[in-house]
Amino acid sequence: MQAKPSKQQVAAVHAVLYERRRLQNLHDEMQSIAVELNLDPRARLSPRDTRNPPGSGPNWFVPSTGAVDPAVLDAAKRCDKIAAILSEIAGELDGVDIPRADRDDLQSALSGEAAVWTLRGRSWRNPRPERDPQRFAATVAAHVQASVEAGYTVRAYRKRISELGKLA
Predict the structure, then answer these.
(1) What is the rounded CA–CA span in Å between residue 49 and residue 36?
(2) How far apart are CA 96 and CA 92, in angstroms?
(3) Beta bridge partners of residue 61, listed in sequence order
(4) C-alpha span between 48 and 52 (Å, rounded)
(5) Exposed/middle/buried for residue 13 (C-beta within 10 Å: 0-12, 13-18, 19+)
(6) C-alpha to C-alpha distance for 139 and 117, rounded to whole angstroms
(7) If 115 and its partner were Cys, which of 28, 47, 110, 143 is the partner (CB 3.0–4.6 Å)?
(8) pTM to 2 decimals?
(9) What are phi and psi of 130, to 5 degrees?
């Protein structure tokens, strides 16, 4: 980001990034993943739930068959939905009148985050563990790092308009 964005430019970006329906969908998908994967230590599980204690994570595989647990597969589908929503947001930024470099960085940040969700879902639905978990983790970390770096350059677009002071 070379010049500070105008309040109108920030507002236009906000209209895309913070569209209520999509934010609600993202929240719902992430909450559902937390439930399906038993990530909430405050959850109330049935005493017969084999995932006890609450917050201890999922049963990755069905013991009797070795297949990936259906709840994990559902969570993996939700990862794909989250990635699709983030990609949709990135695509809608094409129609926003801001400098091309800023748009590229915003889209890169969103695309990097979408890539992480895609990798996560792909890994979860894979019936065989990663052969090289360190390489997999490095791939995920590279996407996260690229997303953070791209997002940092355009952080003014994510601020509240009232925080921006006097802009051009």
Answers:
(1) 12
(2) 8
(3) 68
(4) 8
(5) buried
(6) 12
(7) 143
(8) 0.88
(9) -55, 135
